[in-house]
What does this fold into?
Amino acid sequence: MPKPYSEDLRRRVIDKTNEGKTVKQIMDELGVKETFVYAMRKLHKDTGSVAPKKPSGGRPQSISETQLAQIKMLVLETPDITLAEVKEELSLSASISRICDAINYKLNLPLKKRHSLIQGKIEKM
It folds into this structure.
């Protein structure tokens, strides 16, 4: 999603409108699109503000905070547990990839690497 225009630019559009400038003049002076000028005028009229709207919607979290704590305890107690075993042990409805993302990015636990597999491949060469 693109970043919203700065509040300063939004304010300048309203100021130019209040000065009596036409939409075309505002577009030329500030280098914005016609739809942006109309949107700012409408937003200011409806809300009295030019602040960008808060992001809304999005996908709800599939793993709650309590489940995150349970996952962390489980992984720290048994570091060699697989993601499928975590899902089964805690009866999670989230997908394996969501559980992996939660462990790696929300809990900041390190990725496990199987040194024995790497060592076995080196010895065979």
Observations:
- Residues 92 and 116 are 30 Å apart (CA to CA).
